[in-house]
Write a structure and sequence with these properties.
The complex is a heterodimer of chains A (about 800) and B (about 350). Chain A has about 800 residues and is α+β, with helices and mostly antiparallel strands. Chain A has 21 helices and 43 strands. In chain A, strand 21 and strand 22 form a beta hairpin. In chain A, helix 6 crosses helix 7, helix 8 packs across helix 9 and helix 11 crosses helix 13. Chain B has two domains: about 100 residues, no CATH class; about 230 residues, BirA Bifunctional Protein, domain 2 (2-Layer Sandwich). In chain B, the strands form two sheets. Chain B has a seven-stranded mixed β-sheet with strand order 1-5-6-10-9-8-7, with helices on both faces. In chain B, strands 2-4-3 form a three-stranded antiparallel β-sheet. In chain B, a hairpin with a 2-residue loop joins strand 3 and strand 4. The chains are: A alpha+beta (about 800), B alpha+beta (about 350). At the A-B interface, strand 2, helix 8, helix 11, helix 13 and helix 14 of A face helix 5, strand 1, strand 2, strand 3 and strand 5 of B. The complex binds zinc ion. The site of zinc ion (ZN) has 8 residues of chain B, from loops.
Chain lengths: ~800, ~350
């Protein structure tokens, strides 16, 4: 809502600067979002009087003038080139420092700033301006001559009536009363403990004309339209509005159109009550019927747009056809034009819900619908209508027909709400007295009456405050006008012990682990493209009204958006990408499964993405590319850090759509996620050329497992280390051999570590050499050389016979 | 065995064989010693003289053949020679050790150290964690709720009536008529109040969604931390005190702040808290839209309708709630111009945090 400082001052008799007013408004909850000094482009221009004109000694076309620009001060010498300058004229003088909006000697009319100059040897202290130069019109032929009563020294902004300040105020949806100058004046006046003034006007009706004979109004839906009033003004002359009205509308951000429309807008900005003017002669049978549209009807609003109606819209109709979308926008068929002779003025109260539904469905938001949706004052209708009618009579020469049709079958009365002083102070933590409370409320026109109980009231809430419905709403009004700053800042004295969530601690531990192991945490989009999502899951969740088709489906996995980040970084020259993300993934779910919202399941996932170099280029280490074992190691180390054991990594032939060489992770026999290498077909979608390794682990599950860290006694006897190497077929996995070693070695084997794998021609086709380092410890005694030999030989024998391996000497 | 002429030790005619041997070995040692210039030569010297089967050691074998009355005399001599040889060996060894390391191993101390990998937490996580830890220290627990939310929790129970303009304050993504992407983390308040009994003191962090065009200043999703305290006799004064305590811990104890009345359907009275713009110290700049103030949070007393919707009696309990946007605050704190930078995840950006 844009407010004009000058107009606001007409309703409140308080001396306040725009700056002070701005702070006051903000403190009242009417947040000033910006302040605009409207006359600022005219700074440095004043009304002057030419008191002397002489020929320039050195130039025939120039004159040397003496211009009085400030009363009681010496006139200034100004050199002028205009042919029409003469003594006694009132003119506009630009003084040194002022910026001429349009230079008439520049082909593009570029602005320039004035300074004291010497023109052909004569000093000039300013410039007498033309209409064109000031941007006030197109006349370049000579200086603009003002009428004789213009006062010397008046600033141009003031002379033009645009010396105003506009406030852009963010009005919260609960304050429809402040969508008007009077409403804001009421709140400001209360803050200064003053009264505000309502507009004073006199409505002259022509009693010979009676609206009751000239027009009819019928309201069929009194629920959607509880009040409808109409006045008639005949013999109007539709023309341009006077400058005061145009200036006001411009300051408030509305474009002037013609006097009739401008007046309806003016009264709306003044009272907050939207009005609509119909061309009386365009109304069939001079009748207004307020009723619902019919399904399938079409209607063209005055912006020229055609709308398809579904029958729920409230329409203003004449004897034959619809003429307006009630409370939203008038129709093209009855709009005010230059040829309009008589105006039927609508001033009504519509149900907020009805207007909102229509405006929302048709996608129209107007100044009128905005106010009706939030709730206008049903009891201001007649005053606002009279105000508009009197202005129309005044500014268009029209005659107001006697009377006012007012269909208001069920009067809406002020609400009565009871209020307790104790409750006020309990909620606010204050000790405001009963007297103070009634004073604060009375100042904003809420009447207070003593209640039955001690220190209680019955409050009469005027109908312009539809937001006040219960005691707490009154408490808010009290707090607002008492001042938030005057309420103490209290720190709670009580202590509540809250159990800290173990999950939270585990997630923190996970972040710490990744951070100290060189990973960057990333945060990615939650919404992705439908076709992309479909390749990850067939149970995706779609947004019905997406911003773009790229952001249509909730991510079923962290992989696609993490790949977007990988791609972004490769496009910007990155070489080593070690990412993790913790975020939600979504899927549709079985209705029978318990979920916070039926039919949808959400999981908190950990995504790990590794691509490019495994390490940083440095003098002591060779660069090598990331491989599967890097990522597998990350997952294994992380689980170890989290104290999770009983982990099974299950390798299988990749049939999953996203990754090849996949490994499933199970903890305590529960599937918690997978590790794998992204398939080329997936990477191509992101234009990624390098390999990407990806793991996704369900944190809801991982953080659920109980971890008990207990000390276990370690052996007092020395550990023996023995290395063995086998020559095997390539297909035999390390896991299989390790299992075999442990089986053959029994409890005495405490650790099995692969420390060398190689293959080569020397070993023969399809063969590899795998070397293990074995740690042996009985825990009960020192193993003798013979015992060790026996175990090793058992192991070698077992591996040889199971896999046909050959023992290699090391 | 050679016999040298330039010996310093005495020579007796009647000395037995061993005596001759001692003299001879000693002279041999003294001759070799000055010529030893490498570790290798020193090792050869050790093997020749000091090793178990070396020349000095072999003298002990010879000692066995000496008549018993002369044994103490020659024993002393052999010991003396062994001691002398060992001392010379040690001396040379330490000399060689030091010269070798200086000559062969020049240590370039300007070589960079072997770096440990450095990881980063996302700046939004960092801001969020800082907020969490402040609230935890003030006795708040942490709870989470779903991002796909139903209309009831996201709007209705929070006192947004259907067809009310307040719903326009939050442009909404719809999944179904009555299922939305939550527009704030406030619905978690309803879930927790229905699930627990007062006193409740929790914060509710998480991701929220608004159907707004993506630009440098706004994104279609962002992160919020909401807070809720419900108990007997909770007051607006306490809310103010709590918010000031938080703001001073988070933004620094010297900040200036102001409270403005505002409107949220689920709180009443409602407020918004501004702090002096820390980029221009309140003088006014582009970031604070020339107001000198930055809006940092919204709050208020839990609306009685909300309490009633959760089955509480507003006459018996009251509460306050607050909420703040993590992304916007991170943007301001780190001086980032474009909110989209957070989600590009460019490592040149991430590595700065
Ligand atoms: Zn600033």
């Amino acid at each position: 809502m844009r407010i004009s400082y000058n107009w606001l001052k007409k309703y409140i008799d308080v001396k306040i600067s725009p700056e002070e007013l701005s702070n006051k408004l903000t403190n009242l909850g009417l947040e000033v979002e910006s302040v605009e000094n409207l006359g600022s482009q005219y700074t440095g221009f004043v009304v002057g009087e030419v008191v002397e004109v002489q020929k320039h000694p050195n130039a025939d076309r120039l004159t040397v003038c003496r211009v009085k620009v400030e009363r009681g001060k010496e006139p200034q010498q100004v050199v002028c080139g205009a042919p029409n300058v003469s003594k006694g004229q009132k003119v506009i003088v630009g003084l040194a420092g002022a910026t001429i909006p349009k230079n008439q000697h520049d082909p593009n009319g570029k602005p320039f700033t004035l300074s004291k100059v010497s023109l052909r040897g004569v000093e000039s202290n300013g410039m007498i301006c033309s209409e064109y130069e000031l941007g006030l019109g197109d006349d370049k032929s000579g200086i603009k001559v003002l009428d004789a009563h213009a006062k010397v020294g008046t600033s141009l902004a003031e002379y033009l009536g645009v010396n105003d300040t506009a406030f852009e105020i963010g009005i919260t949806p609960n304050r429809p009363d402040c969508l008007s100058h009077i409403g804001i004046a009421r709140d400001v006046a209360a803050a200064y403990k003053k009264k505000y003034a309502r507009p004073v006007f006199k409505l002259r009706e022509n009693k010979k004309l009676s609206i009751y004979k000239l027009a009819k109004v019928k309201v069929e839906d009194t629920h959607a339209c509880p009040r409808y009033s109409a006045r008639l003004i005949e013999n109007v002359k539709v023309q341009e509005s006077p400058s005061w009205l145009k200036n006001f509308l411009s300051a408030a951000g509305l474009r002037p159109i013609n006097n009739i429309v401008d007046i309806t807008n003016f009264v709306m900005l003044e009272y907050g009550q939207p009005l609509h003017a119909f061309d009386y002669d365009a109304l069939a049978q001079h009748t207004i019927v307020v009723k619902n549209a019919k399904t399938g009807d079409r209607f063209t609003t005055l912006d020229g747009k055609d709308h398809q109606l579904d029958g729920t819209e409230l329409m203003i109709c004449d004897g034959k056809k619809a003429v307006a979308l009630a409370g939203v926008m008038g129709g093209l068929n009855s709009e005010i034009s230059r040829s309009t002779k008589s105006v039927l003025l609508e001033c009504a109260y519509f149900s907020p819900v009805s207007i909102r539904k229509t405006a929302k469905k048709l996608g129209i938001s107007t100044e009128a619908s905005y106010r009706f949706e939030r709730g206008t004052d049903p009891n201001i209708v007649i005053e606002a209508s009279a105000r508009a009618a009197s202005l129309i009579a005044e500014l268009s020469g029209g005659e107001v027909a006697g009377g006012c049709i007012d269909v208001y079958p069920k009067k809406i009365s002020p609400k009565k709400i009871s209020l307790r002083t104790e409750r006020v102070n309990d909620i606010l933590g204050t000790s405001i007295s009963t007297k103070q409370i009634s004073d604060l409320l009375n100042a904003i026109e809420i009447k207070t009456q003593k209640g039955k109980r001690k220190a209680s009231f019955v409050c009469h809430v005027p109908t312009f405050r539809p937001d006040i419905e219960q005691e707490i709403d009154l408490i808010e009004e009290i707090a607002r006008h008492y001042g938030y700053d005057n309420i103490n800042n209290q720190i709670p004295g009580d202590v509540i012990f809250t159990l800290q969530d173990k999950k939270e601690a585990k997630i923190n531990e996970i972040r710490n682990w990744f951070e100290s192991n060189g990973f960057n945490e990333i945060m990615t989009n939650s919404l992705i493209d439908n076709s992309l999502a479909a390749s990850f899951s067939d149970k995706t969740v779609k947004v019905r009204n997406p911003l773009t088709i790229e952001l249509e489906v909730l991510r079923p996995s962290l992989l696609p958006t993490m790949l977007q980040s990988v791609s972004h970084n490769y496009n910007h020259g990155a070489a080593k990408l070690h990412f993790f993300e913790i975020g939600t993934v979504f899927s549709s779910a079985d209705l029978t499964r318990p979920n916070p919202v039926n039919g949808y399941s959400e999981q908190n996932m950990l995504g790990i993405c590794m691509s490019g170099d495994a390490n940083q280029l440095s003098w002591n280490e060779k660069l090598r590319p990331i491989d599967l074992y890097d990522l597998k190691g990350v997952a294994q180390s992380l689980f170890t850090k989290l104290g999770l054991d009983n982990i099974h990594l299950i390798c299988y032939d990749a049939s999953k759509s996203l990754t090849e060489s996949a490994i499933d992770i199970e903890i305590n026999n529960t599937y918690v996620g997978f590790i794998g290498k992204c398939k080329k077909i997936v990477l191509e979608k992101f234009k990624i050329e390098k390999d990407v390794y990806f793991a996704e682990i369900n944190l809801d599950l991982v953080t659920e497992f109980e971890v008990s860290r207990k000390f276990s006694e370690f052996s007092k006897f020395p550990t023996v280390i023995r290395d063995v190497a086998f020559l095997l077929r390539n297909e035999v996995t390390v896991q299989e051999i390790e299992d075999e070693i442990r089986k053959a070695g029994g409890k005495l084997i405490t650790e099995v570590t692969v420390f060398d794998i190689f293959s080569g021609k020397a070993l023969g086709e399809g063969q590899k050499s795998v070397a293990f380092s074995l740690k042996l410890n009985s825990g009960e005694k020192t193993l003798s050389e013979e015992e060790i030999e026996k175990i090793i030989s058992n192991i070698v024998h077992a591996v040889q016979s199971t896999f046909g391996a050959v023992l290699r000497s090391i | 065995m050679s016999r040298g002429g330039e010996l310093f030790i005495f020579y007796e005619k009647s000395m037995p064989m061993i005596d001759e041997k001692i003299v001879s070995i000693q002279s041999e040692i003294e001759k070799i010693l000055p010529s030893i210039s490498s570790k290798e030569m020193l090792e050869n010297f050790r093997i020749e003289f000091l090793a178990r089967k070396g020349k000095v050691a072999s003298l002990y074998d010879d000692l066995k053949t000496v008549p018993s009355e002369q044994k103490p005399v020659y024993g002393q001599k052999v010991n003396a020679l062994r001691k002398y040889t060992e001392e010379q060996f040690q001396l040379l060894k330490s000399r060689l050790d030091s010269t070798v390391s200086e000559k062969e191993e020049f240590l370039d101390r300007t070589l960079p150290g072997r770096m440990r990998p450095r990881g980063t937490r996302h700046p939004i996580t960092q801001t969020m964690e800082e907020m969490k830890s402040i609230f935890i220290s003030m006795g708040f627990g942490i709870v989470y709720g779903p991002e796909i939310e139903d209309d009831y929790h996201n709007f209705e129970a929070l006192n947004f009536p259907p067809n009310h303009p307040a719903r326009d304050m939050q442009d909404t993504f719809f999944i179904k008529d009555d299922v939305v992407l939550r527009t704030h983390t406030t619905p978690v308040q309803i879930r927790i109040m229905k699930h627990r009994k007062p006193p409740i003191r929790v914060i509710m962090p998480g991701r929220v969604y608004r159907n707004e065009a993506v630009s440098a200043r706004s994104n279609y999703f962002f992160h919020q931390v909401d807070g809720l305290y419900v108990n007997e006799k909770v007051t607006f004064a306490e809310l103010k005190g709590t918010l000031i305590t938080f703001a001073k811990s988070f933004y620094g104890s010297s900040i200036k702040y102001r409270f403005r009345p505002s409107f949220f359907p689920f709180t009443e009275p409602s407020l918004e808290m501004d702090i002096t713009c820390f980029l221009c110290s309140g003088k006014g700049c582009r970031i604070c839209k020339h107001t000198g103030w930055l809006e940092v949070l919204g709050a208020g007393m839990v609306h009685p309708n909300v309490l009633r919707n959760c089955g509480y009696d507003p006459e018996k309990v009251s509460g306050y709630a607050f909420g703040m946007g993590v992304d916007r605050i991170s943007l301001l704190r780190y001086g980032i111009d474009d909110i989209r930078t957070f989600f590009d995840n460019d490592i040149r950006f991430l590595n700065q945090f």
